[in-house]
Amino acid sequence: MSIIDPKLVGILLLGAIEVVLACYAFFAPTIIARCRQHRARDAILATNLLFGWTLIGWCVALIWALAQPRRFEIHSR
Question: Is 29 exposed, middle or buried (0-12, 13-18, 19+ CB in 10 A)?
Fold first, then answer.
């Protein structure tokens, strides 16, 4: 019998992969906002950190990250 059980190593590796994928899924709104260079990316990060554990907070952060920022035009007279 070996010291390291291959079954245990497989289970631990699978668990580590699941944790990494869960982190990517949890921080998806923040990652999207950073990639799109959203103006409110820091606020989206804060919303994601503080309220992302609730489904509603995560959805709000995701919708906010996907929303196009409004562009205001300055009209000169």
Answer: buried
> Is 74 part of any domain?
no
Per-residue pLDDT reduced to its tens digit, 9-21? 999 999 999 999 9
56 conformational bin, left if phi > 0, alpha if psi -120 to 50, beta if neither:
alpha
Tokens of 58: 């995560």
**Number of domains, the chain:** 1
* Encoded tokens for 77: 């007279």
Q: Specify the pTM.
A: 0.77
